[in-house]
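Repro:
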Amino acid sequence: MIKKFLTLFLIVPFLAACPKPEPEPGPDVPPGPDPGPETQAEIVISSPAAFDMPYAGGEATLSFTSNVDWKVASLDSWVTVSPESGAASASAVNVKLSVEANPGTAARSATIYIFAGDATETVTVNEAFDFYMGAEAELVSGSTVLATNPNVEKFLNEVNYPDRDWTYTKVLDYYGGFNGKTYNDNGQEDPNGKMFNWAYEPFSDKPCSYSIRWNPEDMEAGDMTLTLEDQLDWRSETTVKEGSRYVNITNLVPNDHYTYKVTTAGGKVLAQGDFNTTGSLHQVYFAGKLAKGGCRNGRDLGGWTGLGGKKIKYRLLYRGGRMEEISVADGGPEAMAQGIGAELDLRNSDRLSKAAVPGLDFCAPGIEQGGTWMLKNGNSNGNFGKQCFEFVVNSVRAGKGVFFHCSLGRDRTGTLDILLLGLLGVREGDIGKAYEVTYFAPVGYSVSSSEKSGNPTPVFKNTRNAWVYSDVVPYFWGLADQTEGKTFADGVEKYLLEVAGVSQQDIDDFRNLMLE
């Protein structure tokens, strides 16, 4: 009897020392309050098991009762709860669910946990997405819209530079570029406002964009097609992905009349109408995969008044920043739709061996710098001015619009721009305005990132009273004064004939093809 008692005495302490098994880990959320050993925790939800919220977010009320102290938690930061905990109550408890707006292009869901002792319940918050997320201002049939960026338009309309006086600039007085001034959200100077800097960049090099929309109830399965036409006998067709409720349009020619139609794969018309455009400059932007996005600082030379009061035709000559495969990865079709069939790359690099967009004619003379250096020098293929001009003329003869660029679209590009506009008879004072539009472009175009150390608060320095303009323009005026007509166009023509070695036939053909 004593042995049995001793055995039992030894076994009991041994059992007490054995560790209890650990519970399996659950969600990374705070545990509920301990209800005590004698209360069976119970949660009864009286509100819906799921809340369907609009894309704009909002608030909802979660209602429940709990016979023990409770906690509520959300694992998704876009849903917050208040209060997060409370005491047991036989009456319904109301917890506010605050849902942030959905910035994405897909619906999303969040799970809300209610913990009370060892009891857990969940509800779901479903949030829709904005079908028009990313849509620009809606285009209404019959309306008149601005094609040019409003900041650029204001500058071009208000400034009137004289000929033969490039000693000053006014572009730094305007909002939309690097000028070292602070502005409020309305573009007005404000000492408490923001200043464009290396991280907060201008965007006014992009033209205005608009969206064409349709009734989703009319949609059918399959992709759709946008057909856009204007009074200049231009036409484009763009594929619109299945399920889309809108399509954005941009790169509009100013002072034009457009018609549009959106049709399903089966031919059903979802939207159609017409509109007019206004503006002073045909700006272009081609989407890409760069962080800054696409081919920037782009614009058409068309629209300016030239020789004999004639206008330069649109969609034949474009200037801009670097055009590379990555910068027009998504915008290549749009570039070709704008009539671009040839690329003239003015950069000096051994890697320049093919066009950024497959199918474009390509020329890369390899030019180290702009200004009069570019006009007076050349390589084994001849004078740089001659190479560039002949490629442009031959492309236009073939009906192919030319996009010419360097890296920033500023110095070498600006030099060729002055030459081409000058030859077509654009007034030199107006050429100065066209040259300074680069001011409205971001870092890497208006100012170079390599200039950061010497330009800590970035300010645009390539104005008409600085290099390149103040180098090239006096050179052409000097040649003009040696001619009978003494016009700026005469000076450019004299350069092409006597310095670059271009034929009179090429000059005459270029003017005839470009002016109307």
